[in-house]
Design brief:
This protein has about 130 residues and is an alpha+beta fold. It contains 3 helices and 7 strands. It has helices at about 1-30, 50-55, 80-85; strands at about 35, 65-70, 75-80, 95, 100-105, 110-115, 125-130. The chain has a 4-stranded antiparallel β-sheet. Helix 2 links the parallel strand 1 and strand 2. It is elongated. The relative contact order is 0.19.
Length: about 130
Amino acid sequence: MAKLLIWEFICCIIFINVLLGSIQTIRAAAGHGVVYSVGDDNGWTFGHDYNAWAKGKKFHRGDILVFRFEEGYSVDEVTAEKLETCDNTDAIFSDISGEAHIPLRTTGVHYFIGGAFALCPDGMNMTITVR
């Protein structure tokens, strides 16, 4: 009897995980992805490790990154080469509004930097992979 209950419990857990994964896939495909507030309560500012923040998160097409930052700051999506040198010239995307909502439309690796005041070397940068 105990073995049967354990087996039923394991089957329920597997079913729930498959169901939740399917729901997230359907939501992303329908354009109803997850909204991520980059940096959580810290927002997008210097002195934080945004790659540590992103670690473990599974980004998908249809998800949205929300960058909240102070006046005078920016968020720029750049190439890998531009990330290495913290160069925001010819950025793929740039926003200085204070609250940028960036939809993740393509799969692959995406690179973000804080372009204002040369804050990128102080940790205002992030690399994510979109599935």
